[in-house]
Amino acid sequence: MVDTFRKTDIALKLYESTQNLIRFADTKINSLSVINGIATSFVITNFQQLYQISIFSKIILFMFFMTFIVFVYFLLNTILPRKNENSDVIGNQLVFFAHISKRNNVKDFISDFNSTSSEDFLDDLLQQIYESAKIATVKFINYKKGMITLQFQVFLFFILLGLKSFE
Quick one: DSSP state of residue 64? Predict the structure, then answer.
């Protein structure tokens, strides 16, 4: 019995850690979106001037907006909530808020919670840790792709900035 409580305590810390990783990925991609917004605002504001410089500037503008679209795709795939549809659902589902709110009323949740053994609660918690780790992995994969895309977009931005400066 004591071992289950100790495992549950460790599992709760691990669960909190995976939730923090999810928030961290969201924060990081939001920071990148600020950089993206600054560069895109400059390009849109100066679009007419940049477009008229040369055929090279038109190509760079096209590439810039293509990277913008790709970046937004990775941004949305990072911040949008997701659920692993392939995993098996076990236990009374007492940890995840969406599972809790699916109950008809608070009495059902309280009854499920009170009737759940420590071992079953630990199983449910471990399932949520697994789901959170999957979510964090997908978020960081999309964040990394967004970062690479943004680096290319910033490179194109500096080319456009240089073209405008030397025009």
Answer: H
Q: Which residue has the tokens 């007419």?
A: 48
Two structure tokens written together for 111 = 């009854």
pTM of the full predicted structure? 0.80
Q: Contact 29/146 with Cβ under 8 angstroms?
A: yes
Question: Mind giving me the DSSP string for 143-163?
Answer: HHHHHHHHHHHHHHHHHHHHH
Tell me what pLDDT residue 27 has: 92
Q: For each successive 10 residues of the chain (167 residues), what is the average pLDDT?
A: 77 87 90 94 91 91 96 92 62 67 77 76 83 89 94 94 85
> What tokens were used for 142?
């999309």
Helix (H, G, I), strand (E, B) or coil at 120: helix
Written as one string, the DSSP assignment of 45-79 is HTHHHHHTT-HHHHHHHHHHHHHHHHHHHHHHHHH
Whole-number Å distance between alpha carbons of 141 and 125: 24
CA separation, residue 99 to residues 30, 60, 96, 135 (Å): 28, 48, 5, 16
Domain ranges of the chain: 2-87+124-166
Q: Reduce the DSSP state of residue 33 to 3 states and report it.
A: helix
Q: Among all chains, which residue has been given the structure tokens 């997908």? A: 138
SS (H, E, C) 80-115: CCCCCCCCCCCCCCCCCHHHHHCCCCHHHHHHHHHH
